[in-house]
Amino acid sequence: MKPSAGAPSQALLRTLRHSRRSSPACTGCRPAAAALFGALLAILHAGMALAASPYQSTYAPLPTETTLIRGVALLTGDGSALDRADVLLKDGRIAAVKAGSAKLAKRASGRVIDGDGKWLTPGIIDVHSHLGTYPSPSVASTADGNEMTSPNTAEVWVEHSVWPQDPQFGLALAGGVTTLHILPGSANLFGGRGVTLKNVPARTMQGMKFPGAPQSLKMACGENPKRVYGERLRSPMTRMGNVAGYRSAWVKAKAYREKRRQFESGEAEAPPERNLALDTLAAVLDGEILVHNHCYRADEMAVMMDIAEEFGYAITAFHHATESYKIADLLAEAGICSAVWADWWGFKLEAFDGITQNAALIDAADACAIIHSDSEEVIQRLNQEAAKAMTAGRRMGMAISDGQAMAWITGNAAQALGLAEETGTLSVGKAADAVLWSHHPFSVYARAEKVWIDGHLYYDRSDRARQPVSDFDLGQTVAGGEG
After folding, report:
1. CB neighbours (10 Å) of residue 113?
2. Measured distance CA(57)–CA(53) in Å, rounded
3. Residue 97's closest CA among 432, 346, 379, 478?
4. How many CB atoms lie within 10 A of CB 435?
5. 218-231 pLDDT, tens per residue?
6. Tell me, what's the pLDDT at 35?
7. Calpha distance 25→8 (Å, rounded)
8. Average pLDDT in the 2-11 region?
9. In a 10 Å sphere around its CB, with 0-12 CB exposed, 13-18 middle and 19+ buried, how is residue 276 labelled?
10. Which of 7, 25, 193, 397 has the most other CB atoms within 10 Å of its CB?
11. Quick check: helix, strand or coil at residue 464?
12. Cα→Cα distances 229→10, 145, 189, 299, Å
């Protein structure tokens, strides 16, 4: 097979190493030869790194209009709220926020929006979505989210299943969602790599891919893997089989990583044979890929934390996590987020102990609470899902502010995706990902009136030209122009 561009052949690497060892004993030549060898080896290693991280984002922000929103109420995404403020969006960033009676000066050019009676929030972030991989129309030929062929499919990348024409992206945008984390399904112990997307119209997946966002690894524990493979009379058939499967994979990944280290340090003649699944697991061990772990029961989450400690990796978030409230203190200590539903429970036995106060109790323990969708419908109203979870906590007697609850779908979500420095809050200098709401965003009457991504107005409820329509919609649906 012809080697790919940028990927050095093992024969060439062996030749270089041999030439270093067999070079003539010329005292004056050695420094120059060593420098040349080092430079060549660096180039080859760079080529290997490039080959290991292809499919780079091609997203480019669209032109922006300087926009001043006056006298608007803010939920900032970091737990705070401002009754009245001026917010300036400029050059794709949050340029200024002025609270109280002080006002930002009106610009000579740009747009001014009267925010009186309206609310501004960060763009909503859904950390658990399958849009584009289980698109609409939902038929077998478009169901591309779950590679149920092996308990370990760490080699697959969900981005290679994303269909950018999925009409559901536009529906999510109308609900204020600006960023989505697309994950593979949960049939396997290791489901593959996830990808974070900007919710923008694009012809390709790369055109939606969030620049610089870390990739993730979807893992799953509990009923799903043992059911899928147990029914085939193969491992895992039990929860102990699940754990054995994780541990065996991590043992192989550590050995693979060590062989790569030995090659890079010059201790070995050649790198190990390329293995896509082990590339993924080794990148987790190196802290380059974030672990997002599907897990319901508290005891199983505790076991997964022990496995992470055994093999030296970090779990970024447990997803679904219907029993996180039982171990919220442990999660807080470990710095692990819980991405949960507001009120889903009981649809299978491991979800039977789910309670509506889950997010509130996680938050009360100073752990990281997130409301996610895992649904093409729920993603359209995550603001209301956060409101339901907040209200459940208040009815229990907990003091939860609107600002805290907003962080569950903005700031905390950005943290779990490794994007807290870029988005998730209305902080000066961050991306101008923002939503202007007609009412308080936790009201059932609230509608997203305008949605900005990197300062570009992608959605405007009052302007059909600012309501993206996918190619698939054209001529087929009401949204696409056919009645």
Report:
1. 18
2. 11
3. 432
4. 26
5. 999 999 999 999 99
6. 55
7. 28
8. 41
9. middle
10. 193
11. helix
12. 37, 17, 10, 22
Any idea what DSSP says for residue 20?
Answer: H
Map tokens 């752990």 to a residue. 367
Q: pLDDT tens digit string along 39-61?
A: 555 544 555 554 557 899 999 99
Joined together, the tokens standing for residue 264 give 């890079």
Q: Is the pLDDT of residue 7 over 70?
A: no
- The answer for residues whose C-beta is within 8 angstroms of residue 359's C-beta and 6 or more apart is 338, 340, 342, 369, 370, 371, 389, 390, 393, 408
**Letter for the amino acid at 22?**
S
Contact between residue 337 and residue 415 where contact means Cβ atoms under 8 Å apart: yes
Q: Is 145 helix (H, G, I), strand (E, B) or coil?
A: coil
Tell me how far apart the 2 most distant CA atoms of the chain are, in Å.
84
Phi, psi dihedrals of residue 93, rounded to the nearest 5°: -125, 165
- pLDDT per position as a tens digit, 407-445: 999 999 999 999 999 999 999 999 999 999 999 999 999
How far apart (Å, rounded) are the C-alpha atoms in residues 33 and 26? 10
Return phi, psi of residue 319, to 5°. -110, 145
Virtual CA dihedral for 193, 51, 278, 152, nearest 10 degrees?
40
φ/ψ region of 71 (left if φ > 0, alpha if ψ in -120 to 50, else beta) reads left
How far is CA 235 from each of CA 142, 147, 154, 436, rounded to the nearest angstrom? 28, 16, 17, 50
Q: Please tell me the total number of residues recorded for the chain in this structure.
A: 483
CA neighbours closer than 13 Å in the CB half-sphere of residue 111: 13
**pLDDT of the residue at 463:** 95
Contact present, 350 and 222 (Cβ < 8 Å):
yes
For the record, the structure tokens of 379 come out as 């993603």
Q: What is the pTM of this model?
A: 0.90
* Helical packing angle, 239-265 and 223-230, nearest 10°: 100
Residue carrying structure tokens 């995550």: 382
Label the pairing between strands 119-122 and 67-75.
Answer: parallel
Quickly list H helices, 318-401. 328-334, 358-364, 382-395
Rg of the chain's alpha carbons, rounded to an integer? 25
Give yes or no for a contact between 217 and 291, defined as CB atoms under 8 angstroms apart.
yes
CB 92, CB 241: distance < 8 Å: no
- Taking the C-alpha atoms of residue 271 and residue 364, their distance in angstroms, rounded to an integer, is 48
Bond prior to 61 in cis (omega within 30° of 0):
no
Strand residues in 138-206 grouped as ranges (E) = 177-182, 190-198
pLDDT at 70 over 70: yes
Output the pLDDT for position 267.
95
- Quick check: 441 and 75 in contact, CB under 8 A? yes
| % of residues, the chain, pLDDT over 90 | 83
Average pLDDT over residues 295-312: 98
Q: Is 247 helix (H, G, I), strand (E, B) or coil?
A: helix
The amino acid at 356? T
> What pLDDT sits at residue 50?
45
- Tokens 């009120």: give the residue: 343
